[in-house]
Amino acid sequence: MDLRSATMRGVQSLAEAGIAHVPAQYIQPPQTRIGFSLVKHNNIDIPTIDLDPSQSKQLVREAIGSACRDWGAFHVINHGVPIPLLDEMRSAGLSFFERCSTQDKLCYACDPNLAATEGYGSKMLQSTDTAVLDWRDYFDHHTLPLARRNPSRWPHFPPSYRHVVSEYSDHMKLLADKLLAIISESLGLPSYVIGDAVGEFYQNITVSYYPPCPQPDITLGLQSHSDMGAITLLIQDHVEGLQVFKDGQWITVLPSPHAILVILADQTEIITNGKYKSAQHRAITNASRARLSVATFHDPAKTAKISPARELVNESSPARYREVIYGDYVTSWYTKGPEGKQNMDALLLKC
Ligand SMILES: O=C(O)CCC(=O)C(=O)O
Ligand SMILES: [Fe+2]
User: Fold this and answer.
1) pTM of the model
2) Is residue 350 part of a domain?
3) Whose CA is nearest to atom 3 of ligand 1?
4) What is the whole-number distance in angstroms between the Cα of residue 281 and the centre of ligand 2?
5) What residues have CB less than 8 Å from 35, skipping those under 6 apart?
6) Measured between alpha carbons, how far is 70 from 63 in angstroms, rounded to an integer?
7) Is the shortest distance between the CB of 252 and ligand 1 below 6 Å?
8) What is the pLDDT of residues 254-281, one digit of tens each?
9) Is residue 242 in contact with ligand 1, taking CB distance under 6 Å?
10) Which atom of ligand 1 is nearest to the CA of 234?
11) Is 351 inside any structural domain?
């Protein structure tokens, strides 16, 4: 197979072509390879917080407060989202990637020259780009506000696909609202403070598909980054691959099929004036099993001005970040690339 045309069709075609060596554009430099930094397996896991209404609200606030401070990411269980819906969402995504023909998938191809367009894609090398490519294909859906939601742009297969994504989107929004309220309260603020600072949610749902990779030691499924919006809700299948960076180590997030992973994103770090940090995370590859995740991003409008909440700024705790227009932040993220937390570092004020 012509490797160039296979690359245009995403990494799944490369994997299915049975290559033994990945094309050069997918090879990570030594410092971002998985062998470079410490990886802890299974002996520490990120916190799990039970949101069942029978739990003490005060204890839940405290548990969320420490998870946000220490990790920037945590699992929630008894979150109110029907478990069958989580399974339906994973299985709809998997059917698109594994049961649709390449030709069918390409009907939904997003414009590779534009950032964050809706549809099916894989990171492409731009002519000026020196970034290493991720071993990942994806389908991005624009789901909220409702005016952005156009299910006719989403896969027609399996037949339930469009209905499942719409229902999933609605449930994720409710959960994101609830979590931002508890996160505000965990800082001693009224429940509306962070939600009001973010404003109306712009929600995107990205299904990521990581085919088996013949050289997992020198590739990444998704390079290290923090999410740029306010809060991300993620589910994964039973295959390990997601890692969160904590205290100088990469920690694998063990799959937990009924749980939803909450990832604090950059705008929440700014609004909380750095009291809570966005989580740096990445996805690694493996040689034998495909992996699927579904990330639901909740972002401010591009015109929203984001700055530390006034309630958290005072003489003893001055503002640590300058105000940013969210759209400018997104542009800089796509221009400089997501690597690590470099985009947040650019907003830090010298206190
Ligand atoms: O696949 C994963 O688990 C991570 C996905 C992710 O971090 C993202 O889409 O921003
Ligand atoms: Fe992410």
Assistant:
1) 0.95
2) no
3) 242
4) 6
5) 217
6) 11
7) no
8) 999 999 999 999 999 999 999 999 999 9
9) yes
10) 3
11) no
How many Cβ atoms sit within 10 Å of the Cβ of residue 43?
6
- Domain assignment present for residue 323? The answer is yes
- C-beta of 240 in contact with ligand 1 (< 6 A): no
User: What's the domain range around 264?
Assistant: 3-345
Q: In whole angstroms, give the CA distance from residue 199 to residue 84.
A: 30
Residue 201 falls within a domain, yes or no? yes
Backbone angles phi, psi at 348, to 5 degrees: -65, 135
Q: How many domains, in total, are found in the chain? A: 1
Tokens of 79: 């979150």
The span from the CA of 63 to the CA of 65, in Å, is 5
Atom of ligand 1 nearest to the CA of 236: 3
What is the DSSP code string of 175-225?
HHHHHHHHHHHHTTS-TTHHHHHH-S-EEEEEEEEE---S-GGG--SEEEE
Which CATH number goes with the domain that contains 57? Answer: 2.60.120.330
ipTM over 0.90: yes
